[in-house]
User: What shape does this take?
Amino acid sequence: MTTAQRFQAVIAYFEQAMPVAETELHYDSPFQLLVAVMLSAQCTDKRVNMVTPALFQAYPTPASMAAASVDEVLTFVKSVSYPNSKAKHLVEAARQLVERFGGEVPATREELVTLPGVGRKTANVVLSVVWGRATMAVDTHVFRVSHRLGLAPKSATTPLAVERALTRHLPEDVIPRAHHWLILHGRYICTALRPKCMECGLTEVCKFYQRGD
Assistant: This one.
């Protein structure tokens, strides 16, 4: 099977099995999504969704969060991973949104990654989810599933290399959905320690399964 055929088979499977694929983070605005994604780094979406309702009620906009102290924001996010650094980044990012971007979340990766606590992965999520851009955020799930299925070569040892491998072969209009396909598949089926191969509809094209790893 060629790489192109593998991608075609994977796309065909997910289009049928998961026609609607969206982020599991809860949000009502681009700013709230940005905050939720920042909090989700090395933390589960479930935990983030437990924290954000009260956080967003207290600070629904960049201006309201920018006016808060780090300690005040920390009281809302203390149960997520790395709460101290995340609280600091949230307040600093909110202040920069107000001072540099008129309180709006920028719509380019180049601008987004200038915000404290926002890296390429976070920027790609925001661009994809909010504006439907053909950006592929590579988290641990996407990284793992891409390699197991054979969508990314063994030589793709970094998130950026996996991102480039995926965007090279995925049609632009598919990329925003493919991001969620791979995340959700990795979260619920192709899990890290005990992948549920017997529940997976991709075993015929999966290199991991074919090798019997």
